[in-house]
Design goal:
- The complex is a heterodimer of chains A (100) and B (214).
- Chain A has 100 residues and is mainly alpha-helical.
- Chain A has one domain: Orthogonal Bundle (Helix Hairpins), CATH 1.10.287.
- Chain A is 78% helix and 0% strand.
- In chain A, helix 1 packs antiparallel against helix 2 and helix 2 packs antiparallel against helix 3.
- The longest helix of chain A has 31 residues.
- Chain A is elongated and about 50 Å long.
- Chain B contains 8 helices and no strands.
- Chain B has 3 domains: 86 residues, Up-down Bundle (Four Helix Bundle (Hemerythrin (Met), subunit A)), CATH 1.20.120; 39 residues; 37 residues.
- Chain B is elongated, with a radius of gyration of 30 Å.
- The chains are: A mainly alpha (100), B mainly alpha (214).
- At the A-B interface, helix 1, helix 2 and helix 3 of A face helix 1, helix 2, helix 3, helix 4 and helix 6 of B.
């Protein structure tokens, strides 16, 4: 049996990589992917706690997090398409006016 | 410190964890977004394997179908649709942030590990009341147990999720829709330019005809 702390450590590493990606990347699509990576790291924590505490609630949380992630990806990518149409760029540094 | 026994689940975990971390680093270090998307797909599939290792088959299947399937296809579709030239970073205004990234990574990692050290990892002796009867450890994570909890205790969040998805559909259609007024203006100006060109060509032709006649 794999100890719970191993899963938590992997989840922490993946979450941190996601945060660093948001800082060092300037492409808005890759920023979105880093956010998905962070959501997945938290999902791993929820599932491992669900397993080790013998409670199914954590897996339900994961289900709802996935639904929210799908909604977020759909709306976010629509915003990206709209941004690209108006600005011809995907660099977040060039889209810092909060308006199109 | 106790001797860490190496058995098959641990070996599998180490292999999957290594792949996941390498793919995640590849995700943030690539310059081309399509390579980033592919390494994120690798990470998501490996996470699905980890969920299987955690005895959560339903979540693993959902992970493959929804995440690696639907969401990542959407990402790749948008990357292909926008047809991005490779990283047009003419001016990198915040270059110094890249040098801040490595220390920040280590600091954040240390912080999260400091929190993890205080987690009580001994499993509780009393099985949870949420688990359906029988052996809770065996039936946990099956479709049956998840559906049981989802449609009884957590039916309200489930319905709220469906409303959220509906709103996301409407919102993304509204956002990605072309502004029809702008389109009409663009077409009209293009038509005007074409007409003007045609008239000019006509005039020139008449002029040359007159010259020939003279």
């Amino acid at each position: 049996m794999v100890p719970l702390s191993w899963y938590l450590a992997l989840s922490a590493v993946l979450f941190t990589i996601g945060v660093v990606g948001v800082v060092i990347q300037r492409n808005i699509i890759v920023l979105f992917m880093c956010i998905e990576l962070m959501l997945n790291a938290v999902n791993l924590t929820l599932v491992s706690f669900s397993r080790y505490l013998g409670d199914v609630t954590g897996q339900l949380f994961v289900f709802i997090v996935m639904a929210v992630a799908a909604a977020e990806a759909a709306v976010g990518l629509a915003i990206i398409i709209s941004l690209f149409r108006n600005r011809e760029t995907l660099n977040v540094d060039e889209a810092d006016l909060l308006k199109l | 410190m106790e001797q860490i026994a190496i058995d098959i689940p641990r070996l599998l975990f180490l292999a999957f964890a290594g792949i996941a971390v390498v793919a995640a680093f590849n995700l943030i270090l690539q310059r081309n977004p399509i390579y980033s998307a592919l390494s994120l797909i690798v990470t998501l599939c490996v996470m699905a394997a980890l969920f299987l290792l955690l005895n959560a088959p339903f979540i693993a299947v959902i992970q493959i179908v929804v995440y690696a399937g639907a969401i990542m296809v959407l990402f790749v579709f948008v990357i292909m649709l926008l047809n991005i030239r490779e990283e047009e970073s003419k001016i990198d205004r915040q270059k110094y942030l890249k040098w801040l990234a490595a220390p920040m990574f280590l600091a954040l990692l240390a912080q999260v590990f400091a929190v993890i050290r205080y987690v009580d990892t001994t499993p509780p002796s009393i099985p949870s009341a949420n688990a359906p009867g029988g052996n809770p450890a065996e039936s946990l994570g099956t479709v049956e147990s998840i559906a049981n909890a989802m449609f009884t205790t957590y039916v309200l969040p489930f319905e709220a999720t469906s409303v959220l998805i509906l709103m996301a559909i409407v919102g993304s259609m509204l956002l990605a829709k072309r502004d029809s007024k702008q389109d009409i203006e663009r077409i009209e100006t293009a038509l005007d330019a074409e007409q003007a060109e045609q008239e000019q060509a006509h005039l020139a032709a008449e002029k040359s005809n007159k010259e020939v006649a003279a």
